[in-house]
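Translate structure to sequence.
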């Protein structure tokens, strides 16, 4: 793999799969060799659109394709455990969209399977691979704003979405939290790690998914994070981190930002700017890791993914959101 293109398979043909593949085909060391969907018609249409040589009307065929080095799983998150598990079991490496799975139990199963098979596995948290977010994280870690006191982040879509939409469907893991809230939670945990305590409130739909959720995360250091997500109102979708000696503000679209502003006590504000984030950075990181023989990425470590899943589970436990596939699982013990 070190002397040739990395060969990708795309599992699912929705909007995020198309966006990722559009970035992928522009990378000189990447080759998209196969695509799979639940229907052959959808797979063929996608293959025609992006010039992919093989189209499969089923996941198993892609999982068994030994010419595929890594599979990008882009199904709704309710199917991530099944799709990524199938690929890992067949010996494929996997980049799996976020939210990684429906819950921490499923995530732990995928991580265990990847380790058993010796395969690479990574959550497609493109925010963590964004060079500007990496720069921001470095600044915070190096003490540019002193000790972190608080983090604020939100992500909301204007909606409203009809009850038939996947965002309102409990069977597909619907609701604001898993689709949007994963970004604010992941941002906070990138900077502070897993919280010691979680409290939350939500407005639920008639179907039982969260229309909007607010959570307060706290750490033993005294740091707090306020995170909010919504599918009933377009929020500012910004983020900020405040420290004992300054603050960093990220404007609209914080999870794919091309700029942020560093405010340090006694100094003029500093603006950091980069090119469009795109999805290519996560693909580049996957290919770097594969060529290095790594089974996980230091930018999106599996322990961090599992920690985020535990926080999302705790938030859902606090607000009373439970999906049909989880019936019969034990309730979480409040922290």
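Result:
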């Amino acid at each position: 793999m070190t002397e040739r293109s990395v060969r990708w398979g795309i599992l699912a043909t929705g909007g995020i799969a198309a966006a990722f593949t559009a970035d992928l085909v522009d990378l000189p060391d990447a080759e998209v060799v196969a695509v799979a969907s639940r229907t052959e018609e959808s797979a063929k249409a996608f293959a025609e659109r992006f010039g992919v040589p093989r189209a499969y009307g089923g996941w198993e065929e892609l999982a068994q394709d030994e010419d595929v080095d890594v599979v990008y799983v882009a199904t709704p998150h309710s199917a991530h455990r099944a799709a990524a598990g199938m690929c890992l079991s067949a010996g494929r490496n996997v980049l799996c969209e976020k939210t990684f799975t429906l819950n921490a139990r499923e995530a732990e199963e995928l991580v265990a399977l990847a380790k058993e098979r010796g395969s690479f596995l990574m959550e497609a948290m493109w925010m963590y691979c964004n060079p500007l977010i990496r720069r921001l994280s470095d600044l915070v870690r190096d003490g540019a704003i002193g000790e972190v006191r608080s983090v604020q982040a939100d992500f909301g879509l204007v909606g409203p979405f009809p009850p038939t939409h996947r965002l309102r469907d409990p069977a597909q893991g619907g609701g604001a939290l898993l689709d949007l809230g994963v970004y604010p939670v992941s941002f906070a945990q990138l900077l502070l790690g897993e919280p010691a305590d979680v409290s939350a409130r939500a407005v639920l739909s008639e179907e039982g998914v969260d229309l909007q959720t607010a959570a307060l995360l706290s750490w033993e250091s005294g740091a707090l994070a306020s995170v909010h997500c919504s599918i009933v109102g377009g929020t500012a979708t910004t983020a900020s981190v405040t420290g004992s000696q300054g603050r960093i503000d990220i404007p609209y679209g914080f999870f794919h930002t091309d700029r942020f502003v560093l405010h340090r006590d006694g100094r003029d504000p500093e603006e950091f700017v980069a090119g469009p984030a795109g999805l290519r950075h996560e693909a580049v990181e996957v290919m770097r890791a594969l060529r290095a023989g790594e089974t996980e990425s230091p930018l999106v470590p599996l322990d961090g993914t599992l920690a985020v899943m535990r926080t999302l589970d705790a938030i859902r436990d606090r607000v009373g959101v439970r999906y049909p596939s989880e019936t019969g699982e034990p309730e979480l013990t409040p922290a």
